[in-house]
């Protein structure tokens, strides 16, 4: 009887080994330093993603402005149908054509600069001057575009009261493209203003 008791006791696992395995499988609680470090890393990553989104959105908006300004220029430049239906007979249409050319030149330079900055990580214009160039340039060009649209709209509406033909339709299309270019540059100016004010607090 004593031998059977000894054999049963020999088959049971030692309690000390079970306690050691349980303690080893329990993860240690995260310290305050680790939590703060994880939060800081997440904040930095989200900030980088936001800055990258801002950079790309500026490129997209200026690219759209370039496209719309180019369309406005091409439509108005080809709006010649003989007689009174020649765009160069009207100061308002010559004005919108000239502003569309300026918008094309400005946005093309800005798009090339944005692409160079994204590919190389370096800006052609040093900071903080580049932020002022973006903010002032976008605002001035947006103002010129909306002023050109404001000048050409009354003339076009007056013509369409008397006659509605290809000349007036093309004039309206050119004005619409110029307005779309203004909208894109106005939004780009808001983003440029955000980057400028943010730079002032760094």
Automatic annotation (TrEMBL):
Localization per Swiss-Prot or TrEMBL: Cell membrane
Organism expressing this protein natively: Amborella trichopoda
Keyword field contains RNA-binding: no
Keywords: Cell membrane, Membrane, Transmembrane, Transmembrane helix
InterPro entries the UniProt entry points to: CASP_dom
Family classification: Belongs to the Casparian strip membrane proteins (CASP) family.
TM regions (residue ranges): 59-78, 93-111, 131-153, 173-194
Subunit structure: Homodimer and heterodimers.
Membrane topology: Multi-pass membrane protein
Region: Disordered, residue numbers: 1-35
Protein name: CASP-like protein
Casparian strip membrane protein domain ranges (all copies): 54-183
Cellular compartments per GO CC: plasma membrane
Pfam families recorded: CASP_dom
